[in-house]
Amino acid sequence: MSFRERLQSWRYNLVPDHLVGEILTKRWTDNAIPFLALVVTLASFGSIIPGFFKLNALQESTRQLGEFSMVVTGMTVVMLGGGIDLSVGSIFALSCFSAVYVFFILEQSIWLAMAASLATGLIFGAINGYLVGYLRLRAFLTTLVTFIFGRALFDILVTTYAADVQLSTATSDVLDFIGDSTFWGLSVSVWLAIILAIVTHIALTRSRPGWHVLAVGGSRRSAHNAGIRVRRTVFMTYVFSGFCSSIGGFLIACRLSGAGPGTGLNLEIMALTAAVVGGVSLGGGRGSVIKGLMGAIIVLTMTNGLIRLGYGTGTNQMVLGIMLAAAVTIDIRWLKNRHKVLNEVYVAPVYLKMGETQSAVPGSGTPYELDNRLSAADHIGLGELEGPEDVILDRDDHLYCGTRHGEIVRFFAPDYVKSEVFAHIGGFPLGLAFDKTGNLISCVGAMGLYSVSPQREVKRLTAETARSWTSIVDDARLRDPNDCDIAPDGRIYFTDSTKRYDAHDWALDSIENRATGRLLVYDPRDGSTKTLLDGYRYTNGVCMAHDGKSLFFAESWACRVHRYWLEGPKAGTAECVIRDMPGYPDNINRASDGNYWMAWLGMRTPSFDLSLRHPDMRKRMTRRLPQDEWLFPNINTGGVVKFTEKGGIVEALGDLSGDAHPMVTSMREHRGYLFVGGILNNRVGRYKISGADPNWTSPASYWGAKP
Amino acid sequence: MNAIGWLNLRSLNQEGIVFAIAVVLFVAAAIGLPGFIDPNNLVAIVRSVSVLGILALGMAVVIIGRGIDLSAVAIMAMSVAWYLQLLNTGTSDGLAFAYVVAGVLAIGLLNGFLVAYADVPAIFVTLATGSFVFGYVRSQLITQDAVPVPQGHWVELLGGLRFLDIPIEVFVFAGLAFLFFLFLRYTKWGRYIYFAGDNPVAARNIGIPVRPMLVLRYVLSAFVALIAGLLTASSLHSINTRVVNSTLLYDIVLVAVIGGIGLSGGRGGVRNVLVGAALIGILLNAMTIIDIPLLYQNLIKAAILLGAIIVDGIINPRDEQTAQQGDI
């Protein structure tokens, strides 16, 4: 290995590039930026301002935070629903005034004051909701106008009644408690804010109205077409926002025992900035209460911190303006480009030097030498089928195969002309196997392991395994279950080809060439799924050995076949029996003469082998070229290979014309014939094997003669 | 019945209605309010709406292009305040003016860049830059809320200029209105604004430089704001930065929207601004003569603006199928 190649292999095989892409697929990366901003803000202000974390100072600022975060929670819900509420400052101020008026001037009980305050918020919110939700006016301008309206009203009221409030002698223990005391170390406003946040969070994530809000925000049109009452949902978000702001207003009325011209001033831009800085997306559908709260803490810390640092008038507005512009821009750019970045960085190729192989060229004299025998095969279902990845025959000689349309099709013996849809599964059925009682077990691409009873009942057996500790993408989920076979004790052994790509992206996995294929076992007795082996380059076909004590499985991109021992001294270990084949192996099945059939889905090419030694080139290729100009494994020529239990190659069958069976993904021997399937083919081939046992069938080989 | 009702409403011309209302108001005020019809008062009306009208011209161009500029008032007040502050601290006039022009240009470019190239909604960009401009100038560049015009400076002299007993800002307003009219109606770029406002994607597809045009509109709006600020300072002999927190901004939007410039873009023109300005001018003047307190005036203006937006929403309705996601 040259020095350059060694460097490449270190660079691409030891540096975990793929983790970047995997982390980016996580929804929580949305939270990472605001969270970092929060930590940085708290840390920097905490270290600049002496006594920032002192209890007294915290007590006062947390009270403010409690009120503010309620307003932000309301704003968050409105924004999640795809709107915006700029009138929160006015609602806050008017609710505060309502409470003050009822308590100090009318000298009613504090509870009545609270009711008045909440009613003010609900009514104001309902007006906003009616205008934006039912009349469908533009949220921004409409709430801007109701904000001016409310503010003008508040200014009039406050100037009219300010003196009366000052002269009032009304007092209340409850008011003092809410305004000044603490309960288990936290002020009432903080407790209320926490409760409100938790309730809102649960409502948004776990209740029907909450889902409706997110659906409307995510896509108003789709929500409308799905029958969600969009207008009412939007209306309710504004009512909720009014409600939240009014609680905040009531709390500040208790804290300050009055209302002044400054009450709720600039609150709307602060709340908006908080929500956006926290990561609640404009236009709706993305965000959470927690994000809103993070934003609230950041904004309040910033503004309060700047005041305490003694910066003059206007600094707050300046900082809010910068924060708002930056956060909105980042939010929009991030939303717009995230999937682009993800596409760019997700494919992270590794270095692999494929071993020297024997030629498969006709006339080369090697055991792999392909001939043209498969081109003479009869065809079954020509033009009716799309994508019979695997084929299998039952005891009554009927033929079954999966199709791209998510169905298992049955062709009736003896001539295989008539067919019917045996079962509809929904995903692409790949590997097939019959169990002892005649259930058809199938690996369904991107879905899991399924069982179809003779009465056609479809049942999911398993869709997940234990998650490994170091995984970032969820490797508990089966992304590409590929082929299965069943041991004499009924346990189902199956492969999951890759953890990083869905079944239809298998080509990307071949370009990346990372070893993430697994061998798993499903135990029908207790329904458990266990991972037996991990770290193969696209595990594919599985076949139980004739004696049932071991199984063979194919490792496609490495062109190897392994034997995994179920019993005996080597139980639980795998050994490589065939290495460095000239073709990419797919399904493996039993042959009547005690050997095994193996399908080749494609042939190695010197160019692709070379590209595997240049991961940098493959990386550039996936980033800079359109997909149809990429270098892929050659799947224009495939074949069928028979091998012995020891790994010796007996013969190879091919279709040199490329018309009937260019890519072979499966073959099954039955009564002297070989049935051939291909995942991109439009037929099942039937080839008469000379000298094969005309009575041998696969079900009998596995489960004995017909009972 | 209902359908016919809608149809009739749609066939009505908002500009015409508003003009009619303005005339009715004018007649009513002339008959009912003593001193309203007095020539001095009429000049005062025109003068009072001049600055508003100039700002509304800039806003109109932005709105026609399907945007909005909420930073106009901040730019107006803060650019002039900074200019006067520079003059008061002894910077030479040319240099100070160059600074201010550069600053105004920078903010206009920033607005335009964020809207056009970063795809951030105009409303958020300009809200944020407005807040930033006010905060930055107030905290870093000037020392108090109000900055006076230096004695004998041309800005002060400008305020005293009269032609036929009519103050200079009226002529500036008229001249600018005429220029904007020519620009919007008879220049290629003016027509492009309508195309881009009506359907930005289609405009882009037929090869109109939609993004550079967007930047141009915000720069234009920023310079219009600077002119309005200079005129304000010339008539008041100082500039009070507290105007940023007043309802002036909403008056501007009110003039544009009430004149019939649809917020969804692509519609309206200079005439709509003139009609809107006339109505608002008469209204404000009448309210002042009746002696309605300023706070109540705000309430009334807000109510009118709300009404205008509701009518706008009914005339240019949006529905679930055509409303754009995130169009708030």
UniProtKB/TrEMBL annotation, chain A:
<dbReference type="Pfam" id="PF20067">
    <property type="entry name" value="SSL_N"/>
</dbReference>
<keyword id="KW-0812">Transmembrane</keyword>
<keyword id="KW-0472">Membrane</keyword>
<protein>
    <submittedName>
        <fullName>ABC transporter permease</fullName>
    </submittedName>
</protein>
<dbReference type="InterPro" id="IPR011042">
    <property type="entry name" value="6-blade_b-propeller_TolB-like"/>
</dbReference>
<dbReference type="Pfam" id="PF02653">
    <property type="entry name" value="BPD_transp_2"/>
</dbReference>
<dbReference type="Pfam" id="PF03088">
    <property type="entry name" value="Str_synth"/>
</dbReference>
<keyword id="KW-1003">Cell membrane</keyword>
<dbReference type="GO" id="GO:0022857">
    <property type="term" value="F:transmembrane transporter activity"/>
</dbReference>
<dbReference type="GO" id="GO:0005886">
    <property type="term" value="C:plasma membrane"/>
</dbReference>
<dbReference type="InterPro" id="IPR018119">
    <property type="entry name" value="Strictosidine_synth_cons-reg"/>
</dbReference>
<dbReference type="InterPro" id="IPR001851">
    <property type="entry name" value="ABC_transp_permease"/>
</dbReference>
<keyword id="KW-1133">Transmembrane helix</keyword>
Automatic annotation (TrEMBL), chain B:
<dbReference type="Pfam" id="PF02653">
    <property type="entry name" value="BPD_transp_2"/>
</dbReference>
<dbReference type="GO" id="GO:0022857">
    <property type="term" value="F:transmembrane transporter activity"/>
</dbReference>
<keyword id="KW-1003">Cell membrane</keyword>
<keyword id="KW-1133">Transmembrane helix</keyword>
<keyword id="KW-0813">Transport</keyword>
<dbReference type="InterPro" id="IPR001851">
    <property type="entry name" value="ABC_transp_permease"/>
</dbReference>
<keyword id="KW-0812">Transmembrane</keyword>
<keyword id="KW-0472">Membrane</keyword>
<dbReference type="GO" id="GO:0005886">
    <property type="term" value="C:plasma membrane"/>
</dbReference>
<protein>
    <submittedName>
        <fullName>ABC transporter permease</fullName>
    </submittedName>
</protein>
<keyword id="KW-0997">Cell inner membrane</keyword>
